[in-house]
Amino acid sequence: MKNIGFLSFGHWSPDGHSETQSAQDVLLQSIDLAVAAEELGADGAYFRVHHFARQLGSPFPLLAAVGARTKRIEIGTAVIDMRYENPLYMAEDAGSADLISQGRLQLGISRGSPEQVIDGWRYFGYAPAEGETDADMARRHAEVFLDVIQGHGFAKPSPRPMFPNPPGLLRLEPHSPGLRDRIWWGAASNATAKWAATLGMNLQSSTLKEDESGKPFHVQQAEQIRLYRETWAEIGHERAPRVSVSRSIFPIMNDRDRMYFGRGGKEDDQIGQIDNMRAIFGRGYAGEPDRLIEELRGDEGIAEADTLLLTVPNQLGVEYNAHVIGSILEHVAPALGWR
Q1: Where is each Luciferase-like domain found (predicted)?
Q2: Looking at the domain 3-336, which fold is it?
Q3: Where are the domains of the chain?
Q4: With pLDDT > 90 as the criterion, what percentage of the chain qualifies?
Q5: Pairing of strands 243-247, 307-312
């Protein structure tokens, strides 16, 4: 059995072929797609975060709105770039969004991805400390965030407060119990996956990772997941970890599907350079359901994960993306034992 959700990058463009012409379009349609996915029986609505881009930028208003419009579906990110974040302010936003959704937030965070601008986090007022890299800064921000959302008091109260204080040191409010167990780290390497396990975060592994062995992407991803789980067991965390992987999967059910995705061209892994890292990009899947089922049976990365995030082409609109999600849930997932 798998938890199956969608992952939207939230692109918008004034291009005449796009169903999301503006930021308002993509925000409102993101909410509508989450509602539609819940009605179809999907388990999660996840959103990518990019700054300085025509994509979703500030996740918490969107997550709160989705939480208010839905009842069951998990709501998350994949991922928030921690180089840009004030971890205390983020803890307040995350606590609020989680309380609105009644504990359904699944928050993916990470060191981030290649940016639209040079050192964009500097415009947000952040810079690595002496001897730090920007990745070190992201991990430092993450560790502060993880600490404060546990709800421990740490701030000395004023002797003359505006309102009466509870006794002892004060914590950030609003606090949402249980949120600490629903934080995920987006890991591109085996080393960062093990680091995430050490800190008790769930693991998000996307459609790319550092090419560390030359093996096929799905094999390297499966090895990364096994290393993560081994580290988790060694640390001795009390709860079981969760692991998600992302995939582009498009069943060909009609002529429109065939027009968009029936031409092939993404059946093989790709190699590229990202921030001086040799990266391997996983293949996509498109085809008739019977063919998809056979190909997906051999994907070792999916087999190792408990959660599958389906990357959706959000610019094609809510109706079409709901059709894609529904086709997978009805015609592909049952045959693979995901449902």
Answers
A1: 9-257
A2: TIM Barrel (3.20.20)
A3: 3-336
A4: 93
A5: parallel
